[in-house]
Amino acid sequence: MGETTNDSDRGISRRALFIGGAAAAVGTAVLARDELARLWWRTPGVEKPRKEGEVDFGGAHWVAASSANWRRADRPDDFGIDRVIIHVTQGSFKSAVKVFQDPGHGAAAHYIVGKDGRITQMIRELDVAFHAGNREFNERSVGIEHEGFVDRPQDFTDAMYEASARLTARICARYDISIDREHIIGHVEVPGTDHTDPGPHWDWGRYIPLVRAAAKRDAERTADPSTGPSTGPSGGATAASKSTPAAERDA
C-alpha cells in the first residue's frame, strides 16, 4: 500500500454467470460456470450485471471500498485486463480495510489477502481501482493487497501464499493472462511508482509455481468432474456476506 503518490487516474494521491450443473460436484460446477462467465464477459456492448454484495471470487467476503477510491467501468470490454499487481499493505488487514473505505485516502485495491488466508473483495473486477499510481496500469490490472510489512518475511504465511495463488490463478483464467513475471508483477514494477512493495521478502520463486499449480488443478477439475470439488475458494460472481466482520476478525 504505502505512502500516497500522484495517481494520474484521478489527479489525487495514492498510497498504500451462468449455468447450474446440479448433478455435478460443487467445485467442478463452479469452475464450469466460471469458464462460461469468462467468455460472456468479453461480449462487447454488454453492461455487466451489478448486485450489492456480489464478489468475483467465491471464497471472498465483500466489503465495499469508498466510491472515491475507484472508477466505474465495464472491463474487460472497455479496458482489457492483462496484469495482476501484487501489493503489501504496510499495516494490518483491519487498517487496510479502513483506509480503503476512507474517501480521503484516494486509493484502494480490488482484494486484500490476510495472513490467515482470508480474502476480502472491496472493488469489482469490472471496475478500475486506484491502486497502481498509474492510470494505464490501473485500467489494465487487478490489484491484490497482502497483509503485512515489506521488511517482515514472517508476515508472508503459507496460508497467505496459497490463498493468493488460488485467487490469482482464477483472475488469470478469467482474462487469459499468462502466468509469468511479465504479467504478475509487484507494485514496485509499475512505471513511475516510488513504492517498494511487495519487497525483497516476497518469494516470487515460490509464488508463481503456486499460481500455476492452482491453475492446473482448476483446469483438471473442469475437464474431469470425477476429480471432485475444489479444495479452495472458487471464482465467478457470487453473492457474498457483507463483511464488516471480515475486518473486525483481525487482531
TrEMBL record:
Residues 70-199 form the N-acetylmuramoyl-L-alanine amidase domain. SMART domains: Ami_2. It catalyses: Hydrolyzes the link between N-acetylmuramoyl residues and L-amino acid residues in certain cell-wall glycopeptides. Pfam families: Amidase_2. Residues 225-251 have a biased composition (Low complexity). The keyword Zinc does not apply. The lineage of its organism: Bacteria, Bacillati, Actinomycetota, Actinomycetes, Kitasatosporales. This is N-acetylmuramoyl-L-alanine amidase. Keywords: Cell wall biogenesis/degradation, Hydrolase. It comes from the Bacteria. Its EC number is 3.5.1.28. Residues 215-251 are annotated as: Disordered. One of its GO terms (molecular function) is N-acetylmuramoyl-L-alanine amidase activity. CDD domains: PGRP. GO terms for biological process: cell wall organization; peptidoglycan catabolic process; peptidoglycan turnover.
